[in-house]
C-alpha cells in the first residue's frame, strides 16, 4: 500500500520506493477558487503533469533548479524530497481578481511593473497575504532567502511571459513555492500549471478556465485539447 505524505484538492504526494524521492500524482480535479466546488475535468491530471514537467525542464535550461526529476506516468512525476518553505510567492502582471476588488485597479490593466506578493501557506484555509517582516519574524525564511526568492520569481516571470507570448497567450499572474535542498539551497517545488497561474488569450483578452468555460462541459473538453496542442 502506498504511503500518502500529503493530499490536496488537486494532487497526492506518495512516498517513492526511493527514500529520497516522492511521487507527485495529479488528479482530474480543478478548484476554481478557495470556496468553490471541485470540478472534474477529463485528462486534467495528465495535462497538468505534462505542462508542469515541461515548465520545470524549461526553467532548468535557464539554470533554475526545481524538485522535478522525471515524468514516470501520464499523471505522475518523481520529485526530490525537500523541505518546503510555507510561503507562497505570487507575481502579477495584469490586474484581475483581488487587485480590482481591493484597490479599484482597472480590470485587465497591464501593471507598470510586475507586483510580488507573499502569502502564508495553509492546507486548511485560504492562503493569507503577509509582509516580508511577518515571514522573517515567524522564522519562515530569512531576509537573504526572501531576496533570492524575489530574484528567481522575477526571472521565471520573464521566461514564462516569453514562452506563453510565442503561443498567443499572456501571463496574468502565477504562484510559486520554494524549498530548501542540500545545504539549504533554494529550489522551486510543488508545480507550475493552470492551478497556480492565470493566462489570457492574447487576441480576445479572455482568461482561460474562467467560470463560464468551466460551466460548459463540452467546451471545457475542447479547451483542454486546444491548450494541449498549443502549449506542448
What does this structure look like?
Helix content is 31%, strand content 34%. It folds into 2 domains: 4-80, Phosphorylase Kinase, domain 1 (2-Layer Sandwich), CATH 3.30.200.20; 83-217, 2-Layer Sandwich (D-amino Acid Aminotransferase, Chain A, domain 1). By secondary structure, the protein is of the alpha+beta class. The longest helix is centred in the middle third of the chain and has 23 residues, at 143-165. Strands 8, 9, 10, 11, 12 and 13 form a 6-stranded antiparallel β-sheet that branches.
DSSP helix count? 6
Compute the average pLDDT. Answer: 93
Architecture per CATH nomenclature, i.e. the level-2 architecture of the largest domain: 2-Layer Sandwich
Order of helices and strands: EEEEEHEEEHEEHHEEEHH
Helix content: 25-40%
CATH homologous superfamily classification of the largest domain? ATP-grasp fold, B domain
The structural class is alpha+beta
What does the oligomeric state look like here? single chain
Beginning-to-end CA distance, first to last residue: 34 Å
Task: Tell me the overall shape.
Answer: globular
Number of domains: 2
CATH topology of the largest domain: D-amino Acid Aminotransferase, Chain A, domain 1
**Percent of residues in β-strands:** 25-35%
Number of strands: 13
Computed CA radius of gyration, to the nearest angstrom: 17 Å
What are the low-pLDDT stretches, counting only 5+ consecutive residues below 50? Answer: none
Largest sheet: 6 strands, antiparallel
The top level CATH class name of the largest domain:
Alpha Beta
